[in-house]
Amino acid sequence: MTVPIETEFKLTLAPEHASQLRQHPYLSAITSAKPTRRKLYSVYYDTPQFDLRRAGLALRLRRECGKWTQTLKSEGVVSVGLHQRPEWETPIRNQNIDFTILGATPYKKIFRAKKIQLALGPIFVTDFWRTTTILTPTSAGIVELCVDRGKIIAGHATEMISEIELELRSGLPLTLFTIALELLDTIPLRPDPMSKAQRGYDLAVGTPKLPVKFDNVALGAHISVGEIYKKIAFACLGQLQTNENGMLAGNDIEYLHQMRVAIRRLRALISLFSHAIPQTIPDSELEDLKWLSDKLGSARDWGVVTQQQLPDLELAFPDHPGIRFLGNYCRERCDSVNSDVKEIVLSSRYSRLLVKLAAWLYTDSWADQSGDKTYLLNTPIKNIADSVITKLEKKIEKLGMDRFNFDATQRHRLRIAVKKLRYALDYLSVLYPKKRAQSYLQALQSLQEVLGKLNDITTMNNLLSEIKNTSLDLEETQQIVCGWQTHKEQILLQELDGALERFYRLRPLV
Q: 173: which DSSP letter?
């Protein structure tokens, strides 16, 4: 039986920009029918233990124009703002779950269980107005442009809905990317990886979302280089997006750090597989990736100084005017760069970058070339994994040979090489004996952590060297900071020597 797949592209729309959407010349040119407006009221059901959510399902009953529809959706694939998921939608007589219909889906075992049937109840509600416009961007493509305005209600908690859904009725999914990019030319929209169901569950549960680390994708020895490249790249973009709202709220520097890690992993992936991928990311997107990485890096650096390094100094010298000035200056500077980053994440340039990267990956345009590189692209990852690991190991060995005479620049190069090997092993460890790969990865993580702390010391010294103040003589303050940092650096250099020795003992992995 063919499983029906819903394909749509979601974008958040600030209410103040709704008029820009209505007047957009591109939409006017491809609109084929007068917009319609209707009220949609949906009730989402689950057990008190969220059994359906744990199974990757969302069940809703929706009322529209006095008629009810039952919809079951299962987990699908989200690519930045493109959502593709199996969907079973059926008209029903009233607001009662029809278990006979659900019993005919692939999840019949769940819905035929009496325990589940008796426990299902309303969890949250969505109540919104939808304005729908039919678009015909190509002769073979039909797209529904839906503008949804309303709210999600879970108990006493509410959250606003203001979003655009571009739902594909016929044609290719690339059409949705094209429309999204046209809209982003003039309207500050944001691609949204969250469905209404996900937002409703988060509201119902009520617990704040923690910073999200990279979620390793499931791989096998026979997966091709091209497949792993695509999966990992989308996972990096997913990590970036899922930390956006936490970063915008500004409560924890870790959200910003994880966004930076996501970009770093993506750029490392591009470098790791550059010999096997026929076409690299277009220059304009590479330039924007570097721009984003630099901006996130600057904000993260000031955050580390103010939240992780200065507090110890301020505790040790509570009454020193220079240290007090330093603390105030750094916090003001941190607030300033954080504001800059928030503006960047809310900008069209940032959103366009995500959509263009997703479109580039989704359409496989990077695989469009014949020759040796295409062969590597299609070969199983296990055939090139050893050479990738060995090449990085040799680079680390070479960089670490003269570690007793390292300067900050050499340590930075070593840190980048260690990071690339760590990321590569994150992706490829399934190809090696489990215990050995775990020990090797732990040694890499320890090495990366020490090098990161040493880099933070260098970063703090560089940032503080920019500070100028005419009303205070900061020479004594600089001496205090220098002595403090030198003491920490000496301890860390000893740890670095030990971490390198532990890594060398485990090398080579292959």
A: T
pLDDT tens-place string over residues 157-186: 999 999 999 999 999 999 999 999 999 999
Q: What is the pLDDT of residue 154?
A: 97
Q: Which two tokens stand for residue 438?
A: 């775990």
CA distance 257 to 236: 13
Give the pLDDT confidence score for residue 212 in this predicted structure.
93
H-state helical runs in 73-173: 99-102, 108-111, 114-119
3-state secondary structure of 180: helix
User: Is residue 111 pLDDT above 60, yes or no?
Assistant: yes
Tell me the three state secondary structure of residue 11: strand
**The token pair that represents 117 in the structure block:** 């049937």
Place of tokens 């819903």: 6
Q: What is the DSSP letter of 215?
A: -
Average pLDDT over residues 258-270: 93
pLDDT of residue 41: 98
Domains contained in the chain, CATH given: 5-205 (2.40.320.10), 214-380 (1.40.20.10), 381-510 (1.40.20.10)
Q: In whole angstroms, give the CA distance from residue 146 to residue 214.
A: 32
- What integer best gives the mean pLDDT of the chain? 91
Indicate if the pLDDT at residue 343 is higher than 90: yes
Instruction: Give the pLDDT of residue 283.
Output: 86
Rounded Cα distance, 239 and 216, in Å: 11
What is the C-alpha to C-alpha distance for residues 112 and 50, in angstroms, rounded to an integer? 17
**Nearest to residue 482, comparing CAs of 461, 466, 463, 468?**
461
Q: Are the C-beta atoms of residues 9 and 82 closer than 8 Å to each other?
A: yes
User: How much is the pLDDT for 372?
Assistant: 63
Q: Is 222 exposed, middle or buried (0-12, 13-18, 19+ CB in 10 A)?
A: exposed
Residue 184 backbone zone (phi > 0: left; psi -120 to 50: alpha; other: beta) = alpha
End-to-end alpha carbon distance in the chain:
45
Residue whose token pair is 């957009």: 24
Distance of alpha carbon 418 from the chain centroid = 22
